[in-house]
Amino acid sequence: MDNQKLSPKGCILVTGGCGFIGSHTVVYLLNEGYDVVVVDDLSNASEKVLDRIDTIVGDDAAERLTFVRADVADKDALETVFDEFDIDAVIHFAGFKAVGESVTKPIEYYSNNIGNTLVLVDVMRDHGCKSILFSSSATVYGDPDALPLTEASPKKACTNPYGWTKWMIEEILRSLTIADPEWNVVLLRYFNPIGAHPSGLMGEDPKGIPNNLLPYVAQVAVGRRDAVHVFGNDYDTPDGTGVRDYIHVMDLASGHVAALDWMVGRTGCEVFNLGTGKGTSVLEIIRAFSAACGRELPYVIEPRRAGDVTANYADCAKAREMLGWEAKYDIADMCRDSWNWQSKNPNGYADSNEA
Ligand code: WQD
What we know:
By secondary structure, the protein is an alpha/beta fold. It has twelve helices and 13 strands.
């Protein structure tokens, strides 16, 4: 194959495209007419998601999707992808993401997340592709001094190696734009991504005991776990529980496409928050999910979890003004779609019959 390209819209390499946010973004890209090459080593994702993507977008759009099973740190594999496809831009999701695990495996987290990014940008440079959109996190704001968080809020100390990898990769990518003015970098700082595709065909499928609130609540709702453990009810918030800016994964996905469209013809480094601007407490989430699944979900109050901040939520003005993007889904929508996915796939992708 020589420099394959089917679509005039452009060809996007999506690393980690089989994961939770990646897969939803791939659907959006295909629906918008992009060609998509997914590179994923399936270390924390299921290949079955590719069949679900095909079902959602339909046969014609699915023809514009190519899957390459490879680790982004595998330079030879990446070289082959760039030789075979005329990649216009990269959306880089691939990375380890379990906060707690990162504390016990710092070498693995730093080496995987930072190492794969360095291989990626090296290969990109060699092939003259210098546009990259990076999956960053609000975790780079650390414990905020003031809310809401704007992109100008200071980056502060992270409480775990996972967070530091996001923090450092941002700086690595920013350095590229200083060294070489042809680089075009967008850093998207996600707040708390939840929800699922409204079809119920795709959603979050964590391995083992979920670390994050929503998948845990969803597993309680479906009977896989007994009760939600609420980590602290003595925070300085209206009901004492932690407050976060939860954002529907469909909104996040559309935010990537808006950012990609905005990047065309630009250079430099720009940062955008992707959130809703609204804070929601743990108890409010449990209530909203109970309403979505039609049953009061049991919970128990536990001590605070180490490293948690009291509250954070985004100021979303910059993305609204510059990208013309804003979140459309509310908490009730997020819980409805998350429940739809979890109730149709109680064990995630594991039980599906596709090849
Ligand atoms: C949300 C709230 C908890 C679980 C983390 C990462 C971040 C990003 C998203 C991931 C907090 C409370 C949680 C539970 C609870 N990256 N909680 N019981 O900590 O805001 O963000 O995930 O890839 O970088 O730091 O999200 O969902 O873990 O917690 O009470 O079983 O729910 O204390 O207030 P967090 P979360």
